Amino acid sequence: MVTNETEKRIDINMVRSKLLTKILRCACACLFAVTASLHIRHFEANSHGKGTIQVIPPTQSEKMFLVPYLKGQGFNNQLWEYRTAAIIARATGRALCLEPFHRFYLSQDGRAFIPFDEIFDTESLKGYVDVEAGGGNCAKLCANKLHSHVELTTKPSPARSVLRIADWRPGSLKNFRGSTNFKQIPTPLQLNINPDRGGVAFKTHEEIRNGLHIIKNDTCVSVSGPLLNISAESELWTDKLVISKQLMGVKDRIRSHFFSNSRYLAIHWRVEETRCAETGRGIGYGRSRKTSKAERGKKDSSSIIVRRSDHSAELCFFAIRNRTKLWLRLVSKEAIVRWIHRIKFEHNLENVYLATDMQDEILLRWVKSKTGAISRSDIYAILKHGQTSLENDVVSVLEQEICTEAEIFAGTQMSSWTLRVNEKRARGRNQIFNADMLNMGKRPDESNTTFYMDVEACECEW
Fold first, then answer.
1. Nearest-angstrom CA–CA distance, 75 and 378
2. Could you tell me which CATH number the domain at 52-240 has?
3. Which of 95, 112, 266, 279 can bridge 403 by disulfide, Cβ–Cβ 3.0-4.6 Å?
4. For residue range 93-116, what is the model confidence (pLDDT) as tens digits?
5. Fold classified for 245-458
6. Whole-structure pTM value
């Protein structure tokens, strides 16, 4: 027979059991929340957009990957595509796969693919985004299969698929497979990120996640498309993307040997400008050689606007005032040399470094003899001694560092190579450089230490 005392003990035990169950459930929920929070990336920005980043990578079994689908024909264009991929990877909590760069499409020398870590310091980049080694490693972790491929566009109508690019060019399906080892690549999913033309907003981490919600559960994803220019993100990316320690050491030896670590003028003179084909001299050795008269004839003479520095001007530079006409500057070699001497005198500089793609050796030797400049051929001995690759893209990045650290830098106005140097120099002043494409006569910085050589030497603005 059960007594009243026994019934009371049973009731108390039942209450205790229910209370213990609730406590255990709460404890499990708290533990789950704490564990989940360990995988969140934190970004605290001040009013200038500069902040501190804490990137806490998930465990290998939980990782999701973002693979940059590089289709830019030149190194700097591919680097901007990398920035877009890095921003998206950071916004969506994925590891950025550091796939190799593709050789410039007109170059036949050197390797077809250059490893990312041969040029840049991956440890530094980890301060911005979680990374994973590429060149086959990400493909292995993904069982050689991409689950989604997203192509960002700025137009509502379907654009040409990147998978249809000719095999010999960067961005082709053949080159993507060759550089990454991915074997299964799905049909591209196109996403319009231009709100002005019916697309989705894509300017914040939340907007990026919302725009890509359809592929949020896919482990291995590739992305291609236009440059994302989000000021705070671009600033942090530029700060964390630094050249490898080996290249840094070679750059320091060059400065010490040629400039005795003193102040110097650096110039970037882009000669191979496609739009100048059949206009002026010194054009037609590389890219413009493939520009036929038929292609050039698409613009009649009334739509081509030319300005000259003087009666002997024949060196052509591309300009822009609006997109309805082709704007060109013609500058004489004498005008360029006069401008270099003036800058050296005004800033009390003796040393000059000339970074150029000029293939006219006679012209190059003449400019160097008149200005005392050194160029790529002069630094090859130091590169070889440091066992540094002489491939164009590797040396080009090294030259960009030399130009970035110059007391005065003068670039070519419409060059992506110059634009990257301007971005890096602006970060040195704790600023963000944004090119005004319709007001390019403006000097790149108010301190007057960064110029456009073609603009200044021509003195022929509209």
1. 23
2. 3.40.50.11340
3. 266
4. 999 999 999 988 777 788 999 999
5. Rossmann fold (3.40.50)
6. 0.80
